[in-house]
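Dear Dr. H.,

I hope your travels went smoothly. While you were away I took the liberty of generating a structure for the chain from your last submission, since the lab meeting agenda had it listed for discussion. I wanted you to have the full record in hand beforehand rather than looking at slides cold. The sequence, exactly as received, is reproduced here:
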Amino acid sequence: MLALGVLAQAAGTLVVATPAYLIPLLHLQQGIPLAQVGLLVAAPTVGLVLTLVAWGALADRVGERWVIAGGLALAAVCTAAAAAAGGLVPVGVLLLLAGGATGSCNAASGRVVVGWFPRRRRGLAMGIRQMSQPLGVAVAALIVPPLAAAGGVGLPLVVGAVATAALAIACAAGITDPPRPPRSVLVATGNPYRRDRFLLRVHLVSVLLVVPQFTLSTFGLVWLIADLHWSATAAGIVVAVAQFVGAGGRIVVGSLSDRLGRMRLLRLVAVAGVAGLLLLAGSGAAGWAAPAAILLVLTTTVSVADNGLAFTSVAAAAGPGWSGRALGVQNTGQFVAASAVGPGIGALVTAVGFPVAFALVALAPLVALPMVPKRDQHA
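The corresponding predicted structure, in token form, is as follows:
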């Protein structure tokens, strides 16, 4: 169940992340303005925002297997259609639909992990599950720039369509829905949002902490190429390494959270995020290419470390009757922020440059620090 959840989410992330790695082709070679390209980058994320809560509610009602498999199949169809389309507007619309379809994995695969693993192992298991996003981004960073150079916008999208179609078949065949309490028990537990503000605070913290994550994953590649004069291939390798290291970091942080507590580690991640972004800005302003690449890897690792902590905490606090919807709300808030990163940070970079933009992004984890709840909560 864990392996299928990881691969399904990674395939969906590959589709969502692909437009970010078309920036060198569309902006640097074809001259399309960065803010306009940022809209294309944001399109699949906007699709996620529009559908996450609905997918979560559907998973609460009918289970995880067919939600994941059906969503991935729909994503494959939309991505294949985008590969065959001409012009940025049709491609953007189809990628919006594909992104919405991949939202099925976000809430439902998290429910699989929470349902099949005991509380004492959920941090580690969710850390492994959460490595799917950086793995998907890493694959996109490695394959999209050379594929786009060879075959234009369509070829990388074909790869995404094939990946999501293959995982739709695998999940339909291999996923078994975890056992759940009787309906009467689920109804009796009530709405966790009425109990206290724990879930809302975790949602707000996650919204803020996702801004550095998507800033680096979206603009790290073009920053290395445009400002620090790395080749597209070398820059893609650096970004891929950052994502692979970040994936491993999620596992380590998840395992530690089973022993030390998730909220304590969430505060440490926010502090490290502020420091990493400021150092990254400084190295970029100085033009230090090698230190900047190392700091990009380290700061990217920090920027993705919070996801598993927050995701596990939300699922545990919401309980089995509400975890799908709560995880949908969790991801909706994150992807609302993420969808603004493409055009927003693109415009900010155009106005003030990459180093100052990175320094300003450090305000997000700084503001998040006092919002982190003092202790973990379980339903």
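Two observations you may find useful: The chain is about 85% helix and 0% strand. The two ends are 23 Å apart (CA to CA).

With kind regards,
E. W.
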